[in-house]
Structure formats: C-alpha cells, structure tokens
Specification:
The chain is 4% helix and 36% strand. Strand 6 and strand 7 form a beta hairpin. The longest helix has 12 residues. The chain is elongated and about 100 Å long.
Length: 409
Amino acid sequence: MNVRVPAAALALGLTLVACGKRGDPLPPLRRQPLPVANLRVAQLGPELVVRFTTPRTTMAGVAIGLMDLELSHAFGTGAFDALAVKKTLKAAPGEALEERFPLPEPGTVFRYKAVVRADGRLSPEAAPEPFTVRAAPEPPKDVVAEVVATGLRLRFTPAPLPTPTPSPSPTETPSPTASPTPTGSPSPTETPIPTGSPIPTVSPTPTASPSPSASPSPTGSPVPTASPGPSPTETPTASPTPTPSPTPPTAGTFVYRRPADGSYGDPLTGDPLTADSYEDTTAELDQRVCYELRTAVSTSPRVESAPSGEVCLVRRDIVPPAAPRGLTALEREGAIELEWSPAPDADVVAYRVYRTAGGNRERVGEVSGTRYRDEALPPGVEVFVYQVAAVDRAGNEGPLADGVSARKP
C-alpha cells in the first residue's frame, strides 16, 4: 500500500529534527606549548651555568612529545637579537637541561633565552633577564674531614666575604614644638587691674536649673567624666617598633657531597653556613663519600667561588654499645658459670668475658649469647673477678659491666 505524506508535513518533521539545543561557543583549543620553567643563571666558579626544565603540555594542558628548543645567548648590553648566538636542539618533555659558558670579565652583562617549538607552534616569549658577572670570590681553605659519633664532620677556614654596603638611615624629622606663650603678656580675656585699686568681688554664678526634659541621674550613679585630651605641649608616645625576624644569610659557605661513584648535586643546606664547621648526619654507614666547599656571596642569583679541594672518607660506626647488666657468677662442680642480661643496642653481635685472678686481668672467652662457663681456672688462686663487655657489628667494644667475684669451687 502506498502512503503519501504531504509536502508540508514532511518539511515540518525535518525542521523539528534539526532543532536541537546549542551550548555556549567554546574557545579555540590553545595548542601553543608552555614555556620552559625555572630558568636560572648562576655564576659557579669559572663558569656561567644556565638551568631550566622543558614543559610537558600545551597551554590547554594537552601533552606534548619531543620538542625543539631554540636557544640563544648574548654577552653585552646591545640589542639582544643583534648580539645573540643561536642554536636548536631536541628535548623530551619534563627534561632538566643545563648549559655552561666560560666566565667573562666582571661587569659583563649576560642574557639567555629559550623558546619551545612543538607541533609547529612557539611558546610565549619573555625578554631575557640580564645577569651581571661579578668578581669570583675565594674558595674555603684547609678543609679537613673526620668521623664522629653522629656522622662526618668538616672543618675549614672560610674565605673573607665582601662587606655589605649599609643602607643610609632615613633622616629624622623633628617633632613640631608648641609655640611658647610670651612671658608677661596678659591673656586676651583678662583685664589688668590698676595698681592700688581695690579688688572687686566676683559674684557667684547662679546654678542653672535642670532642664525639664532631662531625667535625673539615679542616686549613687557616678557621673561620667570626659577623658582629658593631651596637653598642647605633650608629645604623643610612639608605639614600640616590632623586632624584625632574622633574615636568612645570603653569604657564607655551601657544602656539596657526592657518592664515590657519583656527581655533586645541590648544597646540603638551604642557606650558606656562617660557621667554620659542618656535621653531616645523613651520610650512609660504611659508604665512601666526597665533599667540596664553595664560598657564596649571593643566593639570588647564585654567585659562588670555585670548589675547594675535595676530601673523601668513609662513615663508620664508632659508637660502642652499652655495658650488659645483671652479671652473676655461680660456682658449679669445678667451674664458674656466668650469666647476664643482653645489652640494649640492636647491633650487638658478641660478648667478651674478662677474668681477674691474682691482680692480672685477661680475656678468657667470647660468646654470642649471654652465658659463659669458665672451666680453665688457674691454680693457686681462690677468688676470681669477672667482667663482660658487648661488641657491636662494627667491632666496637663497649665498657665493662660491673665486676662480680666468685670463689673456686
């Protein structure tokens, strides 16, 4: 059966299908890559060091892959593009990069720029910040390292630091002083009394009647007294100035550490040291590490000396364990049996037993437990004194426990 649909009805149906709700227009997707992050220029000894990190996404947060870096640097104060030396290299997203340049003469202005190109688009550009080269400071001297109970200690002679130029103190403005009243001049409201004339009697001022609308004050209620204002000749007392918080040092000594088979990273302290020693408590036991020290005259930007002479050593455990307690001695069928409580240290591996006979003390045994049986008693001696010391994994022997005496069975 053929069904005919009128043309008007068909047109109306198509119109209804096409009518859908439209949302707000979306902004175009920002495909421009983010710029490099944390670009810093530092003066480290005989070099200028530039460090930065490449981006991982576009401005819209879309991940990017391998990118091109357009790097340029210039020495001098002229037009950057006219002086710049340029190069291009490939980089991965999130990669930390570093570039080094020989240190020029003090006072030279250095500028550096890094632009990211990804998918044919360039990252936003910013004018490169100028870095003015300073005279290189002297490194610390006489660096000595030693093993101590808590780690490794460095002692050194700090280099002399430049004396900071003090900021000029603001000139104090004197407080305005009230104009003095002329001596002897009558007040404008006073009438001078002629000499020899009788002094007129002043009539008392009549008391004003209370206003009918004013409510009488309750009996016994104190009448509020107006606070007197400051006298014209008084100077208001200044509020005490709060004590400023201490400012972290920007000059001093930085300590760097590396493993024997590694390289140097960041300084071990966030701020430069102002002392002549440093104790490293984070070095691993039985591991060889190396140190170098640099004099820092500025932390922002970083300006440091060349490194001091390198010193290397192994951190070892030199702390002996505590003495065991509760040592007892019992005579048993031709022998003397000893027993004690273990030392509290977790790295104890053995105990050494000492015997004093006839004024001579000697080590008679070493055990891993907390008991010992002494059967080789020397002849001619009736009384023996025993002591026990703990030994740790590093071979450190602790103090002797309190001695106990026993007679030959």
